[in-house]
């Protein structure tokens, strides 16, 4: 399963049993506002309340607004009295849960087979091939070792070849409308992406005074 864990520490410290299971676990800060488009790429979202149940509650309430992906909250036994239906979670896990219990509860979250949808098609542009279903990106067959945000940024840009986006638009689409960081974040991630694209760094172009575009020259040639 593809799992997103909202936590401020290593998930293995919050739920040791999870580390023994073969699930793909991605992490993001507990304070992250998860866009619906991001949440839809995961089978479940784990909300870590083992250190701060109040912050976990706030995260769960935010997810309840427009996010359909099942949520599982991790809470210590002392905080169980605070958990109510208002949190909008599908399951609860204690930090001491065994791998077998974790696997069972995650499996019970699964949507009915009739509701299953085909994996999204690969995004292909200018030699870049991106598969959302397994979070892989290749450039002319070469695997790209990307962080989660680098993957999201490349996925968005490659999905709109030839278009130019302002830094504010990229922040909204990739980081979410509630992200409080500045546009400098976009510049930093673009620079890192270009470094990983190597000799093909020109695929991401800078439009002075506007923002960034992907494969603009190739689209214009067509």
UniProtKB/TrEMBL annotation:
DNA-binding residues (ranges): 120-216
Keyword entries, A-Z: DNA-binding
Protein's name in the database: Winged-helix domain-containing protein
CDD domains: trans_reg_C
A Pfam cross-reference name: GlnR_1st
Entries under InterPro entries matching the protein: GlnR_N, OmpR/PhoB-type_DNA-bd, Sig_transdc_resp-reg_C-effctor, WalR-like, WH-like_DNA-bd_sf
Domain of life per record: Bacteria
The keyword rRNA-binding is annotated on this UniProt entry: no
Domain OmpR/PhoB-type: 120-216
Cross-referenced PANTHER family: REGULATOR OF RPOS, TRANSCRIPTIONAL REGULATORY PROTEIN GLNR
